[in-house]
Design goal:
The protein is an alpha+beta fold. The protein has helices at 2-14, 17-33; strands at 36-40, 46-51. Strands 1-2 form a two-stranded antiparallel ribbon.
């Protein structure tokens, strides 16, 4: 049981929130460069992405 808890703590420390935000920003930039258009709702959440025609 202690090994599992230690593993979870190590995995959580490796992937921080800032790294996840950076990865998401890079993903959005790549989509825009490739001609993607994403629709967002009023909360800023993605509704869907499609190729720009």
């Amino acid at each position: 049981m202690k090994k599992i808890i230690t593993l979870i703590i190590l995995l959580a420390s490796v992937m921080s929130c800032s790294e996840l935000a950076e990865m998401e920003a890079k993903s959005q930039q790549i989509k825009r460069e490739r001609g993607w258009e994403c629709m967002y709702n009023y909360k800023g959440e993605i509704q869907g992405c499609n190729y720009i025609k």
